[in-house]
Structure formats: structure tokens, C-alpha cells
Amino acid sequence: MEAPENLRHDHLPGPKGVFNGPALLAEKCYICEGAFDAISFMAAGYANAAAVFGVSGMRWEWLRARQVVLCLDADKAGQKAWQALALEGYTRGHEVSFADAATYGGCKDANEAWAKHGRLELAPGDSEPEAPFVARGAGWKLSFSNTLGEYMVFANDEAAAARAPAGYVTYTGEELRALGGGGLNAEGLKQVHEAKKLFGGRVGSKPEE
């Protein structure tokens, strides 16, 4: 049974916050609708990804980035919203581009695309490298994070994590959801990563062929 619309999102009423706010101060910023999407872009090497919590949560007065890439959901609302936001950005002096539906490889948003494909395909004009997709198995994938500068494992759950290659720091879906629920930025993610290494996970060099 679908929940009533007024009960679907506790965070929507009132003033909106920003996930990874320091990204708004960078030369180039990637704007997402939700924290999970921003975390997915960060994992793919786009450290300056921020979430504004819905298409109505944009805070232009906080934005200092000259170049803005709107990475909104690939649904009708998201694709319609980027046009309005792009116009607002242009009038405020920003260079605005957007991630079209092809960016997500047929998925509805960045988080789903990262979970399914292990990569995010931005337009050729975006020079930041994608995360090399090294290996995958049942419910896990091993890839390189440019944000952290290290290889790591992303697993759907603890069972999948147990099947993944040993010797790499592992993040489960539950951990990512927990991280996405707070105000974690790129520096915070690095601190969490260092803490995880102390509990048995180590970061390796590129896996042998």
C-alpha cells in the first residue's frame, strides 16, 4: 500500500539543508537530488557532488561554483526541473550543464546506476575520470574511488561482503544508507574510511590481472 503523499518524506517541509555543502564552493559542482546519488558520484570520483534534497531544495545563494552540472533523476520531474534550474543558473552567472538519461544507463538515478553498473557515464566535456571497474561478483563489486584514491569493495549486504575479495575495505548497502543520512562530506568519508582500515580492512594496490 502506498503511503499518503504528505507522509512520504519527513525532510521536505521547512528549510532544506545540503549534503556535502563544501562542494558548493568548488570551481565545478555536481548537484544531485538526494544524498545517495551524491555519494554515488563521490564514489565514482566526482568529489564535488552535493545533494539539495529534491528539485525544490536548490540554494543558489550558497553556491560559489562557476560550473554547475545538474545530475537530477531521470524521471519526468527531474528532466523538467533541470530546464528551470538551468535558466536560474544562467541568470545568476553560472555555466550550467546537465546529466541526461543516458548518463544513468537506463536507470532512474545515479544511485541505482552505480549499484547496477558500477560507473556513471557523464558527457565527454567532464574531464574528471570515471572509477575503473575492476571486478564484480554476486552482490559485490571492486572499484577505485578517486575521492579516496584507493580500491574498495561495495557489497549489497553482509552475505555479499563475505563473498568479496579479502584485503579491501568493504562498504555494505546498509553502511552507505547510514552515511547518507547525515551531513557527511568528502573529508568525512575519508575519515570513516581510515577508521574502517583500523578494523581489519586494508587498501591494496591495483589487483593483479
Quick description:
The chain is of the alpha/beta class. The protein contains six helices and eight strands, in the order E-H-E-E-H-E-H-E-E-E-H-E-H-H. The chain is 28% helix and 18% strand.
| Annotated CATH topology | Dna Topoisomerase Vi A Subunit, Chain: A, domain 2
> How would you write the strand order of the largest sheet?
2-1-3-4
Q: Classify the beta-strand content into a percent band.
A: 15-25%
The helix content, as a percent range, equals 25-40%
Shape: globular
Number of strands: 8
In the CATH classification, which architecture applies?
3-Layer(aba) Sandwich
Mean pLDDT: 76
Radius of gyration: 17 Å
Which residue ranges are poorly predicted, with pLDDT under 50 across at least 5 consecutive positions? 125-133, 202-209
Element pattern in H and E: EHEEHEHEEEHEHH
The biggest beta sheet reads: 4 strands, parallel
Straight-line distance between termini: 48 Å
What is the structural class?
A: alpha/beta
CATH class: Alpha Beta
**Could you say how many structural domains there are in total?**
1
Number of helices: 6
